[in-house]
Amino acid sequence: MAEDVKPTRKELMQIEERIELSERGHDTLEQKRDGLIMEFMDILDEAQDVRSDLDEKYEEAQNAINMARALDGDVAVRGAAAALKEHPELTTQSKSVMGVYIPQIDSTKVRKSLDERGYGVLGTSARIDEAASAYEELLEQIILAAEVETAMKKMLDEIETTKRRVNALEFKLLPELRANEEYIEQKLEEQEREEIFRMKKIKDKKEREEDEEAEAEREAEEAETVAADD
Amino acid sequence: MSQEIGVVGSPDFTTGFRLAGVRKFADVRDDDEDEQFDEAVREMLEDDDVGILVMHDDDLNRLSRGVRSDVETSVEPVLVTLGGGTGSSGLRDQIKRAIGIDLMEED
Lengths: 230, 107
Known about the structure:
The complex is a heterodimer of chains A (about 230) and B (about 110).
Chain A: H1 9-72, H2 74-82, E1 89-97, E2 100-108, H3 126-229
Chain B: E1 2-9, H1 11-19, E2 24-27, H2 34-46, E3 50-56, H3 57-60, H4 65-73, E4 78-82, H5 89-99
Parallel strand pairs in B: 1-2, 1-3, 3-4
């Protein structure tokens, strides 16, 4: 990789600039990752509470419906279940936590009063009503669980990408840039040394030429004086 | 946009939710083929009106690999499993991968 760059001063300046930018980005991303993990920990605690409540409610609801089924018969329970008119509806809004959009689920018509349920009051027993209200409670808890679990999934995704970016900068991009920087610096230094050596050579050559010229002049003068003597 | 809750599972599992007013449900009998289960879950995933998908934790194991990972990582609809103890196993794996520690370990 280091051989791909041109060893020029301009290139060196560009690489230095990139290193500075990458380091700044790396620090920011690292802070973002730590912040996300801290947020995630808060949500995780909440999620675990919601989870245990959910399991409890599920058990209660199951007991209630089993009771209804045992005493009123499966057909009566299913008949009542098929008669439901009102349906729970969800509306989702989102809020942003450190750039991650987390859903906030609002629900309507989860809890219904007896006459809203739609099955006849006379034809069914109180046990079916109990089962229905137990399941309504369970649904509310499920909606809560869905909210925190979606939030967790999204946060985890974001944490993973941020972590990958931090690592890519730290272990791939920055080392490469630093290697390039060093390569160019060494190359430039070498060029400088070569230049100095070349200058010295030229200077030597020039001095030698001057000496030779002076010698030639002196010889010529001497020859002249000898000729004049003659 | 208003969405609904979807339930996939055995008739015993779904009846209770229908009693609470859930309209989107798919009954898969225990003796049905696992492919039918895959099909039912896939339909729920593709349905834009479903915001939350409820399943029993044991039923997850009946899904084929691809559908299972799709449903576990899906955000819309989001999967909520019941009866499996600490959350869906997919979430736990994801935490291990992203944070590096198994945070959901039972103390």
